[in-house]
Amino acid sequence: MASSSSLRSCSLFLFLILSSIFSLGFSTRTITNYTFSIREATIKDIKLSFERNQLTSRQLVQYYLREIARLNGLLKGIIEDNIATKDKLNTTAGSFALLGSVVPRDAGVVEKLRKAGAIILGKASLSEWANFRSTTATSGFSPRGGQGKNPYVLSATPCGSSSGSAISVAANLVTVSLGTETDGSILCPSSFNSVVGLKPTVGLTSRAGVIPVTPRQDTIGPICRTVSDAVYVLDAIVGFDSNDEATRHASYYIPPGGYKRFLNPYGLKGKRLGIVRNPFFKIAQGLGLGQTFDNHLHTLRRQGVIVVDNLQIANIDVILNVSASGEAVAILKELVASSVRSLADIIAFNLKFPDLELTDKIGQDIFLAAQATNGIGAQEKAALANLENLSKNGLEKLMRDYKLDAVVTPRADASSVYAIGGFPAIIVPAGYDSQGVPIGISFGGLKGSEGKLIEIAYAFEQATKIRKPPSFKP
């Protein structure tokens, strides 16, 4: 598992329900010999119940609100956070410093969701400031939200920083959610909460209105219980946004008709998947998970995959230890109203209210280090160039040399490989360890390869059907 410090350049957040395709009033209904349950229900299930005039959006929202009231005191998966909504919901990144601030407009992805018929039910909890405040921060903790809990094993980490999004989807407090990722924040919580996380190519989804870490790596993607639901959400949020220039180029990656056509149960047949055993499969083996992933490789082969084994990514040790340069307060200048307008203001707030922000326990060493810089200078430009070279000589070269469709790795341990190049990845449930803690399996590729990754992940999901509802073990 990646450490909390390596996940500090991440984010998480929004909660949503698509009103045109969700609803529910009771936990179970029988509809002309069709039994429908909200728990684990997919978008397709709910849409069918809508079409049969058996359920309404109001009933669905009421059901989820009851579940949130029943379970959120324990799980602490829902508060208000860092994807802007122009409504009564706060946008705080888990910090009291932004409580009461007013955003100028909906975030780009929120605007698209509302147009698609989404009901914004709430916002998810997270690791405060997207785990970019301190190297000693705890995954899933923020002063506003408290400590998020893994619904499978409450004492296990929920991972972060998009903890609350994964927790709440896993626990059936919401139909689908969004998370944000700079390095691991979608993939890691999805792995630990037995849900599907899709990290898109940087720029495929708009970051406008999202509290940033670094535009070079930040991306917004779905966290859902199934691959198909993740794809439906992805189709709703991709595309050009004039407030995020990165979406202009990335829009050319979007296939005609969207991504739904890649939901192919036979999508593994003929795919070339690369296996990087050192260090990823060795880490899994050291955790007692080696047999689990060896079994999955057998499954992939049976489904027609060409497995290219024992590959190496150049400079992998360096890649796994790089970190993003933060730009986490750029959005503060756009706020209509706020008591903080700069990184210095946030640092001062934390020092003024140490008990409120738990600064004495968490610290803010990353903020202090960022404040001591002069922005993007020669040293920072050299670091960015180094990331570019690591990507070109690492994953890009590996994929080209071996003509791979994707790389497959256990859990979210390869997140930095995808992060530094702005590459996409998807993670799906792969099993549970001896304590019942979920584990995922990741498939990653080059920019614009979402279609291939969806085919691979969906076919794997359909061949294995591993996910089960949470058990809330102590």
Q: What are the key terms here?
A:
474 residues, alpha+beta, two-stranded antiparallel ribbon, 18 helices, 15% strand
Write the layout of secondary structure elements.
Layout: E1 14-18, E2 28-31, E3 34-37, H1 43-51, H2 57-75, E4 78-79, H3 108-115, E5 118-124, H4 128-131, E6 141-142, E7 146-147, H5 163-170, E8 176-181, H6 187-192, E9 196-199, E10 219-224, H7 227-237, H8 246-250, E11 272-275, H9 277-286, H10 290-302, E12 306-308, H11 316-319, H12 343-352, H13 354-357, H14 359-362, H15 365-371, H16 378-401, E13 406-410, H17 415-419, E14 425-432, E15 438-444, H18 450-464
Parallel strand pairs: 11-12, 11-13
Antiparallel strand pairs: 1-5, 1-8, 2-3, 4-5, 6-7, 8-10, 9-10, 9-14, 13-15, 14-15
Walkthrough of the structure:
By secondary structure, the protein is α+β, with helices and mostly antiparallel strands. It is built from 18 helices and 15 strands. A hairpin with a 3-residue loop joins strand 6 and strand 7 (146-147).
Overall SS class = alpha+beta
- Sheet with the most strands, sense and barrel status: 11 strands, mixed
The percentage helix is 25-40%
Rg for CA atoms: 21 Å
CATH architecture: Alpha-Beta Complex
For this structure, the CATH topology is: Amidase signature (AS) enzymes
The geometry reads as: globular
